[in-house]
């Protein structure tokens, strides 16, 4: 909203024109979301404690996690609130990319909220029925995928960009809706599976969100896009504001979620931020790069799929000591902090490899 006010004021005071630049609004978006998280964090935690919204720990999980029982969950609401306010203040609300990304995040956040509510009120660690959750995820994901397809302005938005290769695309057409759906819903669930240790999911989200913000900015800038030989997508640069808000809110949440965590994000946080990463990657045509940068999310998801498949097809035999993957390393003797930091380091390397696709082709 402030963009409209600053545009008006710039007619009288030239200094306000600086806020018309995406770069300045990006900085303000990060600081706003971060500041809001710091301010509301303690209040949200106290509120959740009063409501007795404590985490129910799965009984078949690592024994060391039993001490986490009762830790406030649903802290993801502070992420959603911080991102929403920052976007409302510094984003161009007439931009369809920004609206689709924001509404998709909130839609998945609502699904996660209902799931968390069932967990903490009915004390059921499994929460919402899997089929019900998947139905609503699919509905919101399909709406988001179709909306991006319907609002497409240039041919590149219906193509799949192959990273590290020059002028190499796969034309998807309407099939792009199906592919985008899988990216959005898949990323949402992948982040959800990863969110099992203090800070494990949020820091990779922060790093990947910041990197996607770079992709959004250069893809929406005609000169940078031409120089880097990537598709120019008019208007997509506004997603830089969204990515900045998610980065700031994520860092603010990490302040309270760092080991030992004062609060957990819950499904309201993990499902929403995962969907946010997915929809931005689709919008900036970096779906395959997201697959690379989010390698930890991919590995966590594959570990669950392989574990379940092996258990069913091989008569109860397991591949991992425990799934998802982070629990496997805990069972091998790694301390929780070791798993977290080492997974963060891997994500840093993967994000740098993903960013390298801007120049290597």
Tell me about this structure.
Helix 6 crosses helix 12, helix 7 (about 200-220) runs parallel beside helix 14 (about 335-355) and helix 11 (about 285-295) runs antiparallel to helix 14. This protein has helices at about 1-10, 20-50, 75-90, 95-120, 130-150, 175-195, 200-220, 220-230, 240-255, 265-285, 285-295, 295-315, 325-330, 335-355; strands at about 160, 170. It has a two-stranded antiparallel sheet. It is an all-alpha fold and about 350 residues long. The model has no long low-confidence stretch (mean pLDDT about 90). Strand 1 and strand 2 (about 170) form a beta hairpin. The longest helix is centred in the N-terminal third of the chain and has 29 residues, at about 20-50. It has 14 helices and two strands.
Element layout with pairings:
Elements: H1 2-9, H2 22-50, H3 76-90, H4 96-121, H5 130-150, E1 159-161, E2 169-171, H6 175-194, H7 202-219, H8 222-228, H9 239-257, H10 266-283, H11 287-293, H12 295-313, H13 325-331, H14 336-355
Antiparallel strand pairs: 1-2
User: Which geometry do the CA atoms define?
Assistant: globular
Radius of gyration in whole Å, from Cα? 20 Å
What share of residues are in beta strands? under 5%
Discrete helix count: 14
Give the termini distance in whole angstroms: 39 Å
Strand neighbour order, sheet with most strands: 1-2
Level of helix content? 55-70%
Largest sheet: 2 strands, antiparallel
SSE ordering: HHHHHEEHHHHHHHHH
Per DSSP E runs of 2 or more residues, the count of β-strands stands at 2
Mean of the pLDDT scores? 91
**Uncertain spans:** none
């Amino acid at each position: 909203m402030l963009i409209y006010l600053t545009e008006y004021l710039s007619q009288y005071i030239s200094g306000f024109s600086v806020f018309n630049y995406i770069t300045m609004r990006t900085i303000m978006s990060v600081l706003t979301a971060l500041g809001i998280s710091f301010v509301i964090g303690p209040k949200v935690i106290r509120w959740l404690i009063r409501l007795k919204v404590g985490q129910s720990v799965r009984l078949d999980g690592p024994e060391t996690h039993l001490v986490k029982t009762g830790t406030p969950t649903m802290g993801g609401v502070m992420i959603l609130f911080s991102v929403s306010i920052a976007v409302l203040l510094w984003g161009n609300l007439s931009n369809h990319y920004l609206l689709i990304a924001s509404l998709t995040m909130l839609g998945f956040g609502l699904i996660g909220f209902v799931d968390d509510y069932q967990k903490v009120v009915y004390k059921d660690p499994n929460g919402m029925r899997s089929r019900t959750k998947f139905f609503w995820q699919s509905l919101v994901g399909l709406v988001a995928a179709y909306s991006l397809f319907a609002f497409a302005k240039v041919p590149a938005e219906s193509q799949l960009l192959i990273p590290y290769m020059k002028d190499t695309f796969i034309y998807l057409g309407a099939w792009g809706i199906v592919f985008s759906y899988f990216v959005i819903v898949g990323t949402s669930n992948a982040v959800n599976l990863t969110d099992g240790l203090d800070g494990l999911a949020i820091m990779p989200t922060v790093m990947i969100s910041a990197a996607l913000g770079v992709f959004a900015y250069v893809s929406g800038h005609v000169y940078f896009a031409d120089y880097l030989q990537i598709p120019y997508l008019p208007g997509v640069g506004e997603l830089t504001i969204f990515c900045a808000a998610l980065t700031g809110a994520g860092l603010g949440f990490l302040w309270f979620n760092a080991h030992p965590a004062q609060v957990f994000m819950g499904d309201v946080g993990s499902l929403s931020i995962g969907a946010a990463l997915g929809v931005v990657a689709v919008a900036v045509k970096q779906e395959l790069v997201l697959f690379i940068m989010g390698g930890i999310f991919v590995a966590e998801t594959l570990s669950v799929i392989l574990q379940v498949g092996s258990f069913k097809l091989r008569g109860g035999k397991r591949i991992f000591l425990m799934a998802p993957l982070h629990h496997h390393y805990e069972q091998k003797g790694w301390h929780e902090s070791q798993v977290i930091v080492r997974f963060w380091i891997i994500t840093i390397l993967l994000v740098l490899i993903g960013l390298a696709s801007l120049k290597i082709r």
